[in-house]
Amino acid sequence: MTLVATPSQTVGPFFHIGCSKLTVAEMAGANVPGARVTIEGRILDGQRTPVPDAMIEIWQANASGKYADPAESQGQAPHPEFKGYGRVATDRNGRFTFATIKPGAVPGPGNTMQAPHLAISIFMRGLQKRLVSRIYFPGESANGSDFVLNSVHPVRRKTLIASKAENSAETMHWDVILQGEDETVFFDI
Questions:
Q1: Is the torsion defined by CA of 158, 88, 36, 71 positive or negative?
Q2: Under CATH, domain 15-177 is a member of which superfamily?
Q3: Using CA atoms, how far apart are residues 50 and 166, in angstroms rounded to an integer?
Q4: Which residues contact 6 (CB under 8 A, 6 or more apart)?
Q5: CB 109 within 8 A of CB 102
Q6: Cα–Cα distance between 104 and 114 in angstroms, integer?
Q7: Do the Cβ atoms of 165 and 37 come closer than 8 Å?
């Protein structure tokens, strides 16, 4: 008997059909403590063409640097209105938007603290596995000592830091560029 390799499968273009009921664009209710922030952006391919029908998952800590996990809460129940995750699909113009609170610093290796950030996973057609990235906040003093951000070449770090939108102090803009010049930094995990 001879074994023959089967072709690999990519993630299909089904997010708006199969995942629309799983969308979580509001990650923190009105009573959750913390500075409100809206993240908006686009997913663009190597030719800067918008990628419709992609999906972004977001994971984050609350404003105190705690995840929405009873094991993480040190004896306190997580705030019932804080989800700690979100999932949004891009529209036909590759745009996405989600609303949350700015996370606090979380522990890192060697008793260091990580700068406030959002953990990002991107799923889209043509990918065999998700892309993993992070969003950091502009002007955050802890960015200078964050071990993940500092593992990235200084020229490329800007692809991980959101920019303040001109129209609102609470809105940050972060584009995902999949290839080419200014390609977003993606991490192998």
A1: negative
A2: Aromatic compound dioxygenase (2.60.130.10)
A3: 21
A4: none
A5: no
A6: 9
A7: no
* pLDDT tens for the 189 residues of the chain, in order: 676 665 555 555 555 555 666 677 888 999 999 999 999 999 999 999 999 989 999 999 999 998 887 666 555 667 889 999 999 999 999 999 999 999 999 999 888 999 999 999 999 888 888 999 999 999 999 999 999 999 999 999 999 999 998 888 799 999 999 999 999 999 998
Residue boundaries of the structural domains of the chain: 15-177
**Residues 114/147, Cβ–Cβ less than 8 Å:** yes
Distance (Å, rounded) from C-alpha 10 to C-alpha 7? Answer: 10
Token pair 């009105």: residue = 30
Q: Which two tokens stand for residue 46?
A: 């190597």
Amino acid in the structure at residue 140: E
CB 78 within 8 A of CB 100: no
What is the phi/psi pair of residue 157, to 5°?
Answer: -60, -30
Task: Indicate the SS3 state at residue 109.
Answer: helix
**Collapsing DSSP states into helix, strand and coil, what is residue 142?**
helix
Q: Which of 105, 86, 107 shows the shortest CA–CA distance to 39?
A: 86
